[in-house]
C-alpha cells in the first residue's frame, strides 16, 4: 500500500440550507488518514462531527472536493457501486445499534456476509469467531432483545467487523452504556486496532475513548484541525 492514505479528503465542502440560511459545516477542508491509525473526532455539539463521519463513511456526499479511499476515487462511484464498496470496506457502529430484534446474535452478525453473497457456512463460522472475539461465545443463540445493553453493543461491533473491513467508524459507540461496559468496549476497540491493524475513527464526547486514540481532530471554521 506504500504511503497512499486510507482516507484522503481534499477541498471538501458541505453545507446545509435551513430555511433561507446556509450552514457551512465543511469549507474546502482537507484530511488524510493512514491505514492503522486511530482517530477521535471531538468537539461541541452541532459542529459537524456526525456530518464528517457520514461523508467519510460514504453515507453522504460532499458538495465539492475530492475523496479517495486507498487511492480510489470513490466519489466517482454510483450509489449501487458505493453500497457494495461500503459493505466490503467499512464497518459502522452507532450509539443505537440497530440490531434486528427477534433474531439471534449470530444471525445479526451474519447479515453483512449474507448480503455480500458469501457462502452461508463460511460466514456463520466467521460470525461465531467474531462473537467469541467480543466475549459473547456463550450467547450466540440468544435473541438480541434478551442481551444486556453492553452485550448488544458488542454484537453490533462483531457485526461491523464480520467482513474484516479496513475501516471501522463509530459514532458515540458507548453513549448509552454504563462506565463498566463503556470501558470494556473502549478496550476492545483498541485491541482490535492492534490485532487486525484496523483503522478506527470514532466520534465521541467520552474523554476515556478519545484519549485512547492516536490523534484527535475537530472542526473549526469549516476546516478539519488537530486538537
Ligand atoms: N440533513 C440536514 N439538514 C439540515 N441541517 C443539518 C442536517 N444534518 C445536520 N444538520 C445540521 O448541521 C450541524 C452539524 O450536525 P452534526 O450532527 O454533524 O453535529 P455533531 O457535531 O455531530 O453534533 P452532536 O455532537 O450533537 O451529535 C447541526 O447544526 C445540524 O442541525
TrEMBL record:
Native source species: Desulfobacter hydrogenophilus
Q: Which InterPro entries match?
A: AAA+_ATPase (IPR003593), ABC_transporter-like_ATP-bd (IPR003439), ABC_transporter-like_CS (IPR017871), MacB-like_ATP-bd (IPR017911), P-loop_NTPase (IPR027417)
Task: Identify the SUPFAM superfamilies for this entry.
Answer: P-loop containing nucleoside triphosphate hydrolases
Which family is it part of? Belongs to the ABC transporter superfamily. Macrolide exporter (TC 3.A.1.122) family.
What's the protein here called?
Answer: ABC transporter ATP-binding protein
Identify the keywords attached in UniProt to this record, alphabetized.
ATP-binding, Lipoprotein, Nucleotide-binding, Transport
GO MF entry, a single one? transmembrane transporter activity
Give every ABC transporter domain span.
Answer: 7-227
- Report the domain of life of the source organism: Bacteria
Q: Name one GO cellular component term.
A: membrane protein complex
**Record's Pfam families?**
ABC_tran (PF00005)
Amino acid at each position: 500500500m506504500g504511503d497512499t492514505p486510507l482516507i484522503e479528503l481534499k477541498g471538501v465542502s458541505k453545507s446545509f440550507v435551513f430555511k433561507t440560511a446556509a450552514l457551512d459545516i465543511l469549507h474546502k477542508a482537507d484530511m488524510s488518514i493512514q491505514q492503522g491509525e486511530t482517530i477521535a473526532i471531538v468537539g461541541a455539539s452541532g459542529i459537524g462531527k456526525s456530518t464528517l463521519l457520514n461523508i467519510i463513511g460514504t453515507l453522504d456526499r460532499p458538495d465539492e472536493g475530492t475523496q479517495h479511499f486507498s487511492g480510489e476515487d470513490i466519489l466517482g462511484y454510483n450509489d449501487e457501486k458505493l453500497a457494495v464498496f461500503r459493505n466490503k470496506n467499512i464497518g459502522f457502529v452507532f450509539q443505537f445499534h440497530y440490531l434486528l430484534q427477534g433474531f439471534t446474535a449470530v444471525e445479526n452478525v451474519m447479515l453483512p456476509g449474507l448480503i455480500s453473497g458469501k457462502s452461508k457456512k463460511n460466514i456463520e463460522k466467521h460470525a461465531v469467531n467474531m462473537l467469541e472475539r467480543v466475549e459473547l461465545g456463550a450467547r450466540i443463540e440468544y435473541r438480541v432483545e434478551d442481551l444486556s445493553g453492553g452485550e448488544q453493543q458488542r454484537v453490533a461491533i462483531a457485526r461491523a467487523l464480520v467482513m474484516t473491513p479496513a475501516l471501522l467508524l463509530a459514532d458515540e459507540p458507548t453513549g448509552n452504556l454504563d462506565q463498566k461496559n463503556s470501558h470494556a468496549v473502549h478496550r476492545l476497540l483498541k485491541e482490535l486496532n492492534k490485532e487486525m491493524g484496523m483503522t478506527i475513527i470514532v466520534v465521541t464526547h467520552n474523554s476515556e475513548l478519545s484519549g485512547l486514540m492516536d490523534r484527535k481532530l475537530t472542526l473549526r471554521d469549516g476546516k478539519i484541525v488537530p486538537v
